[in-house]
Predict the structure.
Amino acid sequence: MTEDDELLQPSLSADFDVRKFDHPWDPSNLPYAAFFFGPLAGGVLYALNYKRLGSPRNARLCLAGSVLISLVAIASIAWLLDSGVITTKSRVARFGLQGLSAAVGLALSKHQRGRFRAWEQLGRPPRKLLLPALGIGLTFALVFSVLLVAALVIFDVNLSAARAQ
């Protein structure tokens, strides 16, 4: 192999075909949705965007990671309430979860940015995010809440004791 052969090697991965992209969202707007709606809803939005950016493997990994983070967060909150470390009036769990969601969202946005830039270079506009983010965000925030209540019931957390502290 000569130096010229190495120079002419393709530098993009085989799955990087902008023609297969399906009007993605601008990833710089997604951390806001992750912050307000939590890790599960944020993960679903990022996974959908990965799929629209022609990266189904990353979409599956993102979805699995958000489900795992959500389940760990739910179990942790239930344990912290049951052990008396936090109370139902404490906002530390909510703010911590929102901060974690936004931080992970920023990292995922940076990862999606290159593919989205290629989409922008074609002169195509991004998909509108507001209404889908509201619908998906509220739905999966509700799912997260139901799972949290289920965990509190399963772990038999005494909320009246957690409220009094």
